[in-house]
Amino acid sequence: MNRQQFFLKMIVGSLVRRRSRMLVALLAVAIGATILSGLITVYYDIPRQMGQEFRSYGANLLLVPAGDEVSFGVDTVRRAADMLPSDGAVGVAPYCYQMVKINEQPFMAAGTALDEARKASPYWFVSGRWPERGGEVLIGQEVSDVVRLLPGQSFTMVGPGADGGTFSQTFAVSGVVQTGGAEEAFVFMALDDFVAMTGRDRIDVVECSVSASGSALADIAARIESGVPGVSARLVRRVTQSEGAVLTKLQSLVYLVTVVVLLLTMICVATTMMAVVAERRREIGLKKALGAANRSIVSGFLGEGIFLGGIGGLLGDVLGFLFAQVVGQNVFSRSIAFQPLLIPITLAASIAVTALACLLPVRSATDVDPAIVLRGE
């Protein structure tokens, strides 16, 4: 048996002989490591989880004509949309607007890609259904109240055409949209119907819903402005700032809870090790009387602490991932991705915490006077 094997056997034997006390310390380290691993996993996953949740609040990036232009072409919109991240673009809805009249009442007609509008604005509540074919429209609740139209009914829309004439076209109401906002005063139709009716194919604005952090979204906007002439990309501040504020508060809460749990773990381990030192005073005194140096006393106690930290860290890695899954499923209704990098981080943090917690007990052990202890004083 070499020196390292003898040292390991001595540590394991010491822990087994005091297994009731050491089990308490091991549980404290394991719980601390579990909270550390679980919360850091959630901490890193919060932006992705919350980003997906915030996409239900609508567009967070607008593309509008730059300079003196009041509209841009479909090709320009396509080039700008191609610069959005393929895995982060939830919905890209172009809109073009035209004032129209229904029963002599003026309203705003909006032509859009209805599938993309549905993705970009999932908070819209539609009584009835979304249009499924040409000639069907969504009307806002305010429009429905004024002209008394309900799903299934038809109406005629008139307005000025692009050629200077007047158009008149009949549509069927497929649904009534409620948003609590300005959209309730609009009539939404497919872009093809809008172009065929008005003869106008220029886009006024593009609403984009992109799953990205505030800084990443600002970078995307800057790239679009520099890469696509004639397009001004604007962040929807009320959405991006709210998202950033909530994420910052949640991450601060996770950080605070993790620090508190680690401090409690350190206190628990230190208390247990102090009790062990008090219990082993005669053993320590006898070792010193036989010529043992303080260095060997220190290495023995630190070895026990590091061993506890390692075992507790491994348990925390496994339990922490299970804890993160429970949080992800119950809070975000989504699974949490496993972070392999957390295994060495949790192990290192657990060993560091237990080593720090052992410093005071170790100092107490080195202060043991063999003459006094062996006399039974």
The major pleated sheet works out as:
6 strands, mixed, barrel
Q: What is the straight-line distance between the termini?
A: 37 Å
**Strand order of the biggest β-sheet:** 2-3-8-5-7-6
**How large is the radius of gyration?**
34 Å
What coarse outline follows from CA principal-axis ratios? Answer: rod-shaped
**Order of helical and strand elements:** HHEHEEHEEHEEEHEHEHHHHH
Please tell me the overall pLDDT: 84
Beta-strand content bin: 15-25%
Count of DSSP H/I helices: 12
What ranges have pLDDT less than 50 throughout 5 or more consecutive residues?
none
Structural class: alpha+beta
Helix content: 55-70%
Number of beta-strand segments? 10
Describe the structure.
- This protein is an alpha+beta fold.
- The protein has helices at about 5-15, 20-55, 75-80, 115-120, 140-145, 190-200, 215-225, 235-280, 280-290, 295-330, 340-365, 370-375; strands at about 60-65, 90-100, 105-110, 125-130, 135-140, 155-160, 165-180, 185-190, 205-210, 230-235.
- It has a six-stranded mixed barrel.
- The mean pLDDT is about 85.
What keywords describe this structure?
alpha+beta; 10 strands; 377 residues; 12 helices; 19% strand; single chain; six-stranded mixed barrel
Please specify the SSE layout and strand pairing.
Elements lengths: L2 H15 L1 H36 L6 E5 L8 H9 L6 E14 L2 E8 L1 H7 L4 E4 L7 E5 H7 L6 E7 L5 E13 L7 E5 H8 L6 E6 L3 H14 L3 E5 L1 H43 L1 H9 L4 H39 L9 H25 L3 H5 L3
Parallel strand pairs: 3-8, 5-7
Antiparallel strand pairs: 1-9, 1-10, 2-3, 2-6, 2-9, 4-7, 5-8, 6-7
Helix pairs in contact: 1-10, 2-8, 2-10, 2-11, 8-11, 10-11
